[in-house]
Amino acid sequence: MSAKEGGAIIATRPVSPSEQPARLSGRRVSEAKLGSRGQSATDAAPWICPHGSHAGNGCVACYHAFSQADPALPTWTIAVWFTSERPVPIRVLKDVRRHGDRFALDQPSTPLVYLLSGQSRAATGTEAIAGLVGFLLDNRNIVDAFTVTEIRAVTS
Ligand SMILES: [Zn+2]
Question: How far is the CA of 21 from the centre of ligand 1 (A)?
Answer without folding.
Answer: 33
